[in-house]
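Subject: complex prediction, re-run

Hi both,

The earlier run crashed halfway through, so I resubmitted it with identical inputs.
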Amino acid sequence: MTQATGSLHTFGRGGVHPDPHKGATSGREIEDLPAPSEVVLPLLQHLGEPAEPCVKKGELVRRGQKIAEGGKTGVPLHAPISGKIKPVDKRPHPTMAVAPSLAIGGNAEAGPELEFPEDPAWRDLPLEESLERVREAGIVGLGGAAFPTWRKLQFARAAKVDLLVMNGAECEPYLTADYRVMLAWPAEIVEGSVLIAKMAGATRVLIGVESDKPDAITALSKAAAALPTRDIPVEIVPCVARYPQGAEKQLVFAVSGRTVPNRQLPSAVGVLVQNVATAHAVYEAIRFRRPLLDRILTVTGPGIVTPRNVRAPLGASLSDIVEFCGGLAPGTSRMIAGGPMMGRALPRLDVPLIKGMNGLVLLTGRGPLEDGFGPCIRCGRCLDACPLGLEPDQVSVRVEVGRTLDTEPHGALDCYECGCCSYVCPSSRPLVQFMQVAKAALRRAAATRSAS
Amino acid sequence: MSDTTQQFVLSPGPHLHTEESTSKIMWWVNGSLAPAALWGVFVFGLGALAVIVAAIAGSVLTEYAAQRVMGRRPTLGDGSAVCTGLLMALTVSPNLIWWQAFLGGVFAIALGKMIFGGLGFNLFNPALLGRAFLMATFPLQMTSGWAAPRPWFGAPLDAVTTATPLAVLKEQGLEAAIRLVQSPVGLWNALALGFRPGSIGEVSLVLIALGAGILLARRIITLAIPLSVIAGLLLSTLHTGLPVLHLMSGGLWLGAFYMATDYVTSPSVTRAQIVFGLMIGVLTGIIRVYGGYPEGICYAILIANSMAPALDLWFKPKRAAIAGSPS
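This time it finished cleanly. Structure:
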């Protein structure tokens, strides 16, 4: 049983309908950023241990060549441009202020991109070999979380998942990168999904796409019908355009009817969730041993002169990317990495593009909290908006008076910070941040209890 | 190259926000009450206008003074003090003297709202507390000598004083209540359109419904509370044989759509709202039929207000809790 509205699927409760703002870029094909003169690659741009450089200062590397090893829990890094290795140094990082990074100065003498010939046996590789190729390609979740994909696949297999849910919802306002990826490489996404399903042990693939992307649904459906093998069926599931349709728990319920318990992962109900762009990368890694070198992102918002969907080498400076999109419009005050609902504000442009950055939204005007916030008027809008059935109002008033440890019955630990509550609050209360404060305090208290 | 030294504002997410705001909501509520208020002035005359203006002035000035004393930024622009004064005025007799209404507004804000900490913290509906204060303080003007409405458009104001249909129903029975209304358009039309004695803003059900419709369309209120109030009243007056008369008289509609739906003093969880509404409706019926007053909605709501926080905790939203978790 799935929750369906007409023929469309959706999640059970809550959610919001912010203005989608996708029109500026949804009609624009993916455009390549001209090769930048320098790329900066933080050694840590995923969850896990940082990568360990395997090249020396001054060494010439070709695009595609491995430049750092991934260690036991991380993934390797590869040269996104051909050039000369600069010494490892602390460089500005999008989320960590500064971080140890490898840099490459563009240099034509280093030679062209490495060649990645097809492996004719790509469909029938042993499991270990497939996982190794995914790891060696440096693939992490491209939906934004940047968890190393090979590890997620191992966990899924150990948890005996039976269903792979592909996330093509792209429910964040403004973003169209996944949409353009689905239009550009539907066959590769479908093939990649089957490869992922096989590695994870899943027997079925459901690709959830919001119904405001009908041509992506058509393209994927054609690709699924054209699959040469049918051992793993692939089905496209159109979903209602409603935020947060693309959140794991909500998407899993929408397409399969399975309810992921709060505070647990989809694997608890036998599901693995992967982003469509990740499937494309996995396909390239397994068929061609091609590593992850570029990132496709939407650069948009009222603060950019020419909104675009851009394919840029990893490590390219955000200033180069913004320049490619015509530069900043007057009055640009905020820059969001990711979508505007769950993305993170960045302070400046001199930071590199990292693997998890699926959008850059440049906004004008004042942010929701810049003018302060008011008291809770108990209107209940946050209760209606929360997709998990939590009580942001109750958590917020308790945090305000210092009763952070009394917030657990109201769901503080369950919150994954989709932002629906803050979005609808007429008093502009930072409900997500109250949740974060409560969650941190509860976890600290639990850690203290278990330590003593 | 773009200026890489440009500093952006690091505001926390989400970075988008709905257009709705507390002050917009309050002003929509105030605006939606305007037709019923103007109708009150039309049928009861300028005395009603004086009551409305004085009540609002008492509320607004008290809120301003309290915020100054408490060292807070005055927030008169949010419209909530105006809302309290206006709502209170609409629930009182047009016979009230302006300074009495002013005192009611002072009481409503000072002891109904600011003493609890201001907007969002009060337990009881401030407008109804103000009304209860006026009932206790000026019972003569509040309960007797109701101004009779103008019988027609354009006809001169009838200076005869009378009683409300509910009071007559309680004391003398149905026939007398029907005679009281004395309208050629008939009892039901008179009740619906507002050609009857009563509180300033309660008499025209059509205009209250219009205002409520605006709030429903803007999703400022939902039907959960008002429909439960109505259901509760019908249930508790069924045995009198006059549930529909009860439904269409007194301040029921104003109470159900505007007072019981006050965000701060009503539950937020839908299931809790239904229980809350039923409680108000049933209590109203009991007070009207068995109690000492002809009208009961004011006290029914105030009693139910005290239950609102507990109801929200008892009827929490359902969620997919992890196995074995107590919450």
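The two ends of chain B are 54 Å apart (CA to CA).

- K.
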